[in-house]
Design a protein that fits this description.
The chain is an alpha+beta fold and 202 residues long. The chain has one domain: 3-Layer(aba) Sandwich (SMI1/KNR4-like), CATH 3.40.1580.10. 40% of the residues lie in helices and 17% in strands. It is built from 8 helices and 7 strands, in the order H-H-H-H-H-E-H-H-E-E-E-E-H-E-E. Helix 1 packs parallel to helix 4 and helix 1 packs parallel to helix 8. It is globular, with a radius of gyration of 17 Å.
Length: 202
């Protein structure tokens, strides 16, 4: 990921944040301040460098307040995902590592690694049911991609090629130019917060 690509994330996020401020002040109000750089760089516990775009993601906002407070999150990412703080991402990654180690011990690693878990996948968002989005840190074409668990296939698959493209798809949907991962945005009438819904289940 080049610096220019990370800058593309910043540009897309600035548009998104401006939209939140003007249209969804409740969601805008729960964005946390930027994360600490050292905290971000310790997420992978020294195993590898955190992807530059993921670092930039957390330098924009360190997750949002309701998730870390333990309350019901306002899931303002498509498909009901709520972003982690840097500390929460580190904890989620430690759980991922434990699952990898368990798969090695029980002999399931040969088919689980790269399908349902990997020691170079860093979770960064989750739903209330526990599904997670991860940033792929494996070298190759998928480096920096956002992966999502597919219930139908039972494996993780690429949802967006980058965090920047994820936010770009959200912005396009907010402008009425399509959807974001199959989901459409709308404002919650009671709280002026952003939510996403699937057209089949409005």
């Amino acid at each position: 990921m080049t610096v220019s690509n990370a800058s593309g994330l910043v540009e897309e996020w600035e548009w998104f944040e401006t939209w939140l401020r003007d249209n969804a002040p409740v969601t805008y109000g729960i964005l946390r301040p930027p994360a600490d750089v050292e905290t971000i760089r310790q997420i992978a516990d020294g195993r590898f460098a955190v992807h530059p775009e993921f670092e930039q993601w957390l330098l924009l906002h360190d997750g949002f307040s309701r998730l870390d407070a333990g309350g019901a999150p306002e899931a303002f990412l498509p498909q009901y995902y709520a972003p982690y703080s840097a500390q929460r991402a580190a904890l989620a990654y430690s759980y991922m590592l434990r699952n990898v180690e368990s798969s090695i011990e029980d002999g399931s690693a040969s088919y689980a690694l790269g399908q349902t878990l990997h020691d170079e996948w860093v979770p960064f968002a989750r739903t209330v049911s526990g599904d997670e989005l991860v940033v792929d840190h494996r070298k190759g074409d998928s480096y920096g991609a956002v992966l999502q668990y597919s219930d139908g296939d039972g494996i993780y698959q690429m949802a967006w090629p980058s965090l920047g493209s994820m936010v770009a798809s959200m912005n396009a949907a907010l402008r009425g130019e399509g959807d974001a991962g199959g989901y459409i945005p709308r404002l919650h009438s009671d709280s002026l917060s952003l939510e996403w819904y699937h057209p089949r289940f409005p």
